[in-house]
Amino acid sequence: MYTIEKIHFASINSTNTWAKDNINTFKPNTIYFVTTDTQTGGKGSKDRSWSSPKGGFYCTICFPNINKLNPNTITLVTAITICSLFEKKEINLQIKWPNDIICNNKKIGGILSELHDDWFIVGIGLNINLEKEHIMKIKRPLFPASSLKLEGYNDLVCNEILNDLINIFPKNLKQWEDTGLLHFMSEFNKFNILINKIIHIKNMDKDIHGAYLKLGINGELIISNATEIETFLNGDILKIT
Ligand code: BTN
């Protein structure tokens, strides 16, 4: 079993960056939960920045990649963990493959997973109590940004979310190490915003429209249209109808 260690900062550039810079101090068999009240250089996926004023939840979970598993799938398992944690608070969140957390068709969070020196660095950013002035500055291509406070959930406390996460995540991590994504498929489908949708997706060599078909066992998005079935390990969803 893993030992849990919590590390908290009042302010830091990025919890993911801090974790990568300090990996040589990490102990084996330990899961680190690195949190901060605010980030000065928060990192999002696809080289975007992640706006990180006070009031948000910024956490990087670090653990050794013992079984050489796939980073795409831990992103999804983390997204499922977040959605089920909030479901217990009667807050309905959804996952937009591959790493977005959605509430009321608005993006309120995201996950940035990285592999560094055989450690997983799984960064979670959730807009919990962010005010309108901050949200207005965030430009999102598909789902507009919001915070849970702006969506009507006023009494969330970041420290409680951390404690909930510390309670659930290690169990899900163990399950994922044992069975990969398989165990999580039905739960993923419960939160999956793409079910029954037509998707326009693009990555380097492919650009197609099609109906969402399913999630592959390695976390890949599988869509189909009249002529083809296409599999995407990553990519940008440009439109959902
Ligand atoms: C995304 O683009 O949707 C992923 C955002 C991930 C942001 C989190 S906040 C905590 C951790 N530290 C970072 O610099 N990024 C991640």
Please give a structural write-up.
The chain has 241 residues and is an alpha+beta fold. It is 24% helix and 34% strand. It is built from 5 helices and 12 strands. It has a 7-stranded mixed beta sheet with strand order 1-2-3-7-6-5-4, with helices on both faces. A hairpin with a 4-residue loop joins strand 10 and strand 11. The longest helix is centred in the C-terminal third of the chain and has 22 residues, at 158-179. The chain is globular. The protein starts with a strand and ends with a strand. Bound molecules: biotin (BTN). Residues 14-16, 39, 42-45, 48, 50, 58-60, 99-100, 110-112, 123-125 line the site of biotin. Residues 14-16, 39, 42-45, 48, 50, 58-60, 99-100, 110-112, 123-125 line the site of biotin (BTN).
Short structural summary:
By secondary structure, the chain is an alpha+beta fold. Helix content is 24%, strand content 34%.
Query: What's the overall average pLDDT, rounded?
Result: 95
Given the structure, what is the number of helices? 5
Distinct small molecules bound, one entry per kind: biotin
Rounded to the nearest angstrom, the distance between the terminal CA atoms is 44 Å
What are the secondary-structure elements, in order, as H or E?
EHEEHEEEEHHHEEEEE
| Rg, alpha carbons | 17 Å
* Shape designation: globular
Helix content: 10-25%
What about the largest sheet? 7 strands, mixed
Strand line-up in the sheet with most strands: 1-2-3-7-6-5-4
The helix-and-strand class reads alpha+beta
Total E-strand runs: 12
